[in-house]
Amino acid sequence: MTASPIPDPDTTSRRPGAGRELWRRLSGRAARVFAGLHHTWRRSLQVRVVTITLVVSSLLVGGFAYLIAGKITSILLDNAKTDVRLRLTSGAEYAAKQFSLYSQPQEAQLQETIDGTVNYLAGGDPQQTSGVVVALTADGVGGMILPRSSPAVDFRPLISPELRAAVAGGNVANQIQTGRLTGERDTKYLVYGSPVPTRFGQVELYYFVPLTLQDSTASQARATVLATGLALVLLLGLLAALVTRLVVTPVRVAARTAQRLSAGLLDQRMAVNGEDDLALLAASFNQMATNLQRQILRLEEMSRLQRRFTSDVSHELRTPLTTVRMAADLIFAERDGFEPSVARSAELLQAELDRFEELLTDLLEISRFDAGFAVLDAEPTDLVPVVHRVVDRLSGLAERVGVEIELDVPAAPVIAEIDPRRVERVLRNLVGNAVEHGEGRPVRITLGMDDTAVAVTVRDHGVGLKPGEEKLVFNRFWRADPSRARQTGGTGLGLSISLEDARLHGGWLEAWGAPGQGAQFRLTLPARAGDRLITSPLRLVPADATVSFGATSTESMLAIGPGPDGALTVGPANPVPEQRAEVAS
Amino acid sequence: MRRRLLSGALGVTLVLAGAVGCGIPDRSEVQTEQRGPAAEASWSLGRGSEPPAREASGSDAEAFVRNFLAAAAGEPDRAYDRVKQYIAVAERGGLQVKQGSEVALSVVRLTDDPVIEPDVDSMKVTISVQQVGLLRANGMLVPPLATETTYEFRLINAGPAGQDDAGFYVSGPPNVLLLSDEALRLYYQAESIYFWNSERTRLVPDQRYLSSAVPAERRVSEVVRWLTAGPSDWLRVGVSGLPDRTEMINNATGSDGRWEVNLDMPGADDVRLEQFATQLAWSLLELDGILEIKILNQSRKLVDLGEQRASNQLYQLDDSSARRFCVYEGAIHALAVANESIGRVPVAAEANHDVLSAGLRRAGSDVLAALVVSDGAGQRLRVGRGRDVVESFMTGPAHTVIGRPVWLRTDSDQPAGLVVADGELYRFDDRGAMRPVQLGLPGRVDAVAASLDGHRIALIVGGALHVAAISWEGGVPTIGPARRLATSLNRLTAVDWWAESRMLVAGAAGRPAIYDVSVDGALETRLRDDAGAEVTHLAAHPATPTSPLAATFMYEANGVTYRNNPFERIVREQVQEVTAPPTGVRPGNPTAPVFLY
To answer: In this structure, how many other beta carbons lie within 10 angstroms of the beta carbon of residue B76?
Structure first.
């Protein structure tokens, strides 16, 4: 912090901002680091195992180190205490013997004897002591005896009042104290005191034994334990890393192989090394892959055969059909000359042959799609004439069943890169279906576009679709009501082919329906061929549809948006992914 | 990786925290373990007497002076304190106090009663003294330094005026600590301690004074301290002390027949220790029991004091073998005294004539005889050696007067003796050769006597008593520096040792008298106040520390021989193997008495 006496307004005003900035950066960095760590933690089994091993082993080793170091220290201390106690006991005995010669504290030579005794107990030569200080005090003898120590030092501060009281009370007592007696530095001393009974009163004998050696031994032991523990922890971590690596690497290889396998590279296999569990895994994996590959190939072959069969059958049927057709046309042309019943049969034959031909055409188309031979022949096309053309062609049928076809087409051309033949087929199919199932009510065709996509919706007000039928309608040969199966025309392949056409364009073909409310189909195509669709310019669920939560799929979301005349409309969300029958991607 | 580092750091921290948490604490609680040793039943071997306090004498001025002269007796550290109690309060600071080993008491012998003269408000005291010696703190009585013969001080009344029984104070005291010989006798015990001679063959006694105030428990300590301090100065030529730098570590401790001495004795081998043990056993004559000698805390030797004394006798003496002889009509004859055994004359009959005096000694189974005979040319010394009876003698040169010869009791094969001839001291050997001995003292040598240990002699030089030590160099005795002793006798004529540290001295205290004098001259006992005439011969059979018999002596005064126990004259009838003189002839008297031992 700046210690400037005059506060600088600039810095003060700027500092909190700078601080916040710094804090923000730091916290951001920390959050990033944490996120990275979290990511690593989630991603890597090895990191998790190693971390857990390190933490647990640290705790264990730490606990053991604590116990061992504590034990060593207490053993050292106990030994020191035992030694000093022995010395003190014999010292007190010796002193008692020496002082037994005196019966009065003021007696001659007593002080001399005290000096001699402490010198003797301290080892005789004060120059050669090992730092041990021996002291005698006689506080209870009326101050006639001076306290003495060998070597002569000021030992009083090291005798705490509690210890003094304990010893004066006739007890052998000890205490660890830190102070300075002989050396330059503060030293830990084991202070041991014992009363010495004499005939002139009680004298107290104290030993001050430096614990330097014990201290250094204890710290050495601690350091050793610490180093060993650390090495052990690191070793365990290394071991865990190694073992995990041994296990994880094959698993990763297996995962990669499985990924490749699932990506279609069916001949990918794992290397099998040795005979252990991982080798077993690899072998099993390889076996599974082999079995899968065999099964998939078999299924592919079967599918291919089936498609081929369909195609072949269609082709093979066409030739006799052509002959039959020519004969039937002849008979049909001559039907006026037949009996009415025969003429009726000829008409029926002609109609069924038409349907048969249609069916064969559809089957061939489908088989082309299945075989992957369908090719998009895209060109920029105005959709408006296409729609008009479809309506025109179906107007006859519409008039026959009494359905009015309404068109909502923009005035401007709606240009998109499409295959007009296929789009027209799709629209013809959709409008035809709508007219057929319209039950006499009007069918509305809406064309819409935006920057990226064009869409056509076909709305009818027939019986509608039951929940779940939105997807089923695109199935081959699916019928909503099997009872009226063959009454109306259609091969049952129309919507399937339409869906394949939409998919070929990279577009969507979706259905919406509700019982009693009719149905709406929507074709959405990208404006430029090959673009990816994101949204559709038109809604799938018509605006006039009654919102019925029970009726719509429970998973569908509600969409709240602007309705006509500025009112809010609430309806199923658009697009509803579940109701999007197929998404070409 | 970071995670690993982090957990590693965490582990290290944990371990570190754990390890650091359990070192030796800087300070701990007081841990009380057990009751310490309790005081044992107080035991003491008792304390000796101490000099009386100042008030003890009441208003008796003479007793006060006597007590004052005893005040310093006791332990030396507090001698000044005790004396100060006697001195007037205002003058106590005037006494120059010395410390430790500097403390010394001037031992004086009152030559007369104190003269106490009443004055205006005090009494003037004059004491006439003879300086006897200086009693040092270590119990040694060394020759006096002071030469004063009188001391004067005043007595002032301690109480308020008119009250007499409050006692006195000394005013104007002498600036020394005075101790009368009487107080020395009362409040000190003379102790013999022993040192080995230079050859380490014999123990030589030395005398120390132990204050009666010293409790018996400290006796051993005191004796060992004396031993480590070495012998008295005058003895140093003949004896050897303990090895240099030998010191006692603290006090000797013990009780109930078991003692312990801890020494720092350089070069202490088994021989030295054995010798030290013997030295100690004899120096602690009153003690029995076990004494443990430790050298630097290592127990080295257990000594049974009684056994050690029994197996290391001080002197090769057989009390029952002592025999009395005398010279009767120029020949040596045995004496029959009371019911003592009568000895056989150790001189062959053919040599036993013209004898004036004799010195006899037993050396193992041999007898050594030194005779002073007179012939026409004067007096000669005849020396011989023989088994039981000496038959052949060697004759020395002629002198005018030869005193009584004295054999030195050594263990060597070459016997030697001392004799005074014509006022000079000579040494002689077993061939009768006499060689003068230089004493370095002015005056005429009158008498010589040798102690039992053969390392100390007493001399009368110029009428004063001296003692000296003998060192043996190649079998030849050399006399060390003589120490003059102060006795109350004068005109000394004869001397002989009659105990380890006591001598018989004949002289005059007004009248001829025989005194028992200690080896330092401090202690005197009057044995014979009136010997009737000047004592010319004095012969004693010494008492050893262990002998049950009292010492005996005989002396000759005015041609008549006397003995002690009881004092009586030895008459002619007691002389053996003499024929009664013819009637009418006055029979001679036995003279020059001598003991053979």
So the answer is: 25
Chosen domain end from A263, A281, A303: A263
pLDDT higher than 70, residue A562: no
Average pLDDT, chain A: 82
Residue A555 pLDDT more than 50?
no
Chain B within 8 Å of A77 (Cβ-Cβ)?
yes
Q: Within 13 Å and on the Cβ side, how many CA atoms surround B226? A: 29
Point out the domain boundary residue: A330, A351, A374.
A374
Pairwise CA distance, residues A46 & A387, whole Å: 63
Over residues B199-215, the pLDDT tens digits come to 888 899 999 999 888 88
Q: Same structural domain for residues A363 and A279?
A: yes
Strands B524-528 and B535-541: unpaired
| Contact between residue A506 and residue A526 where contact means Cβ atoms under 8 Å apart | yes
Among residues B251, B210, B114, the alpha carbon closest in space to that of A116 is found at B251
Q: Tell me the ipTM for this assembly.
A: 0.76
The predicted-structure confidence for A416-440, as pLDDT tens digits, reads as follows 999 999 999 999 999 988 888 888 8
Q: Same domain, yes or no, for A501 and A463?
A: yes
Say whether both A313 and A245 belong to one domain.
no
Distance from the A27 Cα atom to the nearest Cα atom in chain B, whole angstroms: 18
DSSP B301-361: EEEEHHHHHHHS-S----GGG-EEEEEETTEEEEB--TT---PPPSB-TTT-SSEEEEEEE
SS3 B542: coil
Q: Are residues A531 and A414 in the same domain?
A: yes
Domain boundaries, position A83: 40-263
Quote the strand ranges of B440-581, DSSP E: 445-450, 456-461, 464-473, 476-479, 483-484, 490-497, 502-509, 511-518, 524-528, 535-541, 552-557, 560-563, 568-569
Beta-sheet strands, E only, within A170-254: 171-179, 187-198, 201-210
Q: How many residues does chain B have?
A: 597
Give the integer Cα–Cα distance in Å for A497 and A366: 6
Report how far apart the first and last C-alpha atoms of chain A are (Å, whole number): 62
Is residue B470 within 8 Å of B455, Cβ to Cβ?
A: yes
Phi/psi for A335 (5° steps) reads: -70, -20
pTM here? 0.67
How many domains are contained in chain A?
Answer: 3
**pLDDT given at position B13:** 55
Query: Which residues, numbered 219 to 258 in chain A, qualify as contacts with chain B under a Cβ-Cβ cut-off of 8 Å?
Result: 219, 222, 225-226, 229-230, 233-234, 237
Q: Test A230 with B11 for CB contact under 8 angstroms.
A: yes
Q: How far apart are CA B361 and CA B406, in angstroms?
A: 9
CA A208 remoteness from chain centre:
66
Which of A32, A109, A212, A219 best probes binding to B when mutated, by most B CB atoms within 10 angstroms?
A: A109
The domains of chain B, with CATH numbers, are 57-187 (3.10.450), 189-311 (no CATH), 319-579+586-596 (2.120.10.30)
What the block records as the tokens of B433 is 């050769």
Q: Are residues A137 and A192 in the same domain?
A: yes
Task: Please tell me whether residues A227 and A104 are part of one structural domain.
Answer: yes
